[in-house]
Each structure stands twice: as structure tokens, then as C-alpha cells.
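Feature request, filed as a ticket because there's no other form

It would be nice if the structure record came with a short human-readable summary line next to the C-alpha cells. Right now we just get the raw output. Example of a typical job, pasted below so the devs can see what we mean:
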Amino acid sequence: MVIYRLASALRALPPSCGPVRLVGVDGHAGSGKTTFAGQLAAALDGAPVLHLDDIASHEELFGWTGRLLTQVIEPLGRGETAHYTPYDWHARRFGPPRPLPPAAPVILVEGVGAGRRTLRPFLARLLWMELPHEESWTRGRLRDGAEQRDFWAEWVRAEHAHFTEDPSKPYADLLVTQSQKGYEVLPGPMTSIGPDQTVTHRDGPSAVC
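Raw output as currently delivered:
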């Protein structure tokens, strides 16, 4: 299966943040990032998934870079266990610290903005969920229901502003598309070779995705 070949390729990459390989899964809200990241994590024998929804908040939909660097990136870069405080979107407050040890070879960072310019130097791979924003947002609204209508109006404006100023897709190593048969992984804008050839990590070993 494609997802298992991808998992094998990710394991073969050189570490990107301390001893681990951080892999970003970015895309528009509603594009299927969480579902895909969960399946990829399973193919990686239970790799940890850091959901950026746990790092963001109502007050900082995209202003969470400093918190992610301080709580997660910097400790992992030193080979230490990271501790981040997940945000409760219902209670509107941050919870108790949650550990994220650097024990697994791959850690997935999933969420809108996972490929922002500040984080890209720490990523071994950046994956982009290839689904147009109109379709993604429609799916997200249907998923969350009418009670989240006001939040979605605010979110769409914030996401549009974010990707206008700091786009992720042009820097994606791989594009992930979903079909009735599963997922297809193709070279992204940062890869100039064909989809049936070897995808080679910059400064690293070759791996077939």
C-alpha cells in the first residue's frame, strides 16, 4: 500500500530535529489532514501525532509559533522530552502539560500551518493535502455543524490571510490526494522529478515514496 511505502521512506530520512524526523502534514481546514495523519501514524507503528489544534487557541489561531518552538521544537532539538499544554476549545483554556518524548523515529506535526516558514527548517518532509480550499472548507463546515458557523467565518478569513502571507504548498515535498481506493502520494513543488521516479531527500539518502 502507498501509505506503508511512504512510512518506510520517512523512516529512512535523516533526523531533522534532534534525534527525530519531524514530518509536517499541512493543508486547508477540512482537507483530511487528521484522518491521513492517523493512518500514517499507524503505518509508522504508532508514531506520535502533534495536532496543531492543541497549540493554537481562539485568541491565536495562527499566532502560536513561539509556543510551539519553546514547548516542542527546542526540547526535541536537544534530544529532550517536550512538554506542551493542549488547548481545550470548549473550556477555552490550556490544560496540563503533555509529554512528547524523542523516542520515536518519526513525529507527525498535523494542522493548518504545519509548513510555515519558521517550522520548515525542522521538518524532514512536508506533506500537503491536495484539496481545493472551497471543497475543504465545505467539508469542514458540514463536519462541525451549524453551531460552529460563526467560528468558521472567522477561521476562513484567518486561514486565507495566513496562506496569503506564508504559503505552505509551494514548499511541499509531497502532495497527498485521496480517492475511493485510498491515497496517492505525488512529488510536490519542491520536487522536480516525475511521480514514478525516486524521491530524494535534500542532503539525504534516496527513498521511494
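Something like this underneath would help us a lot:
The radius of gyration is 17 Å.
The first strand starts at residue 21 and ends at 26.
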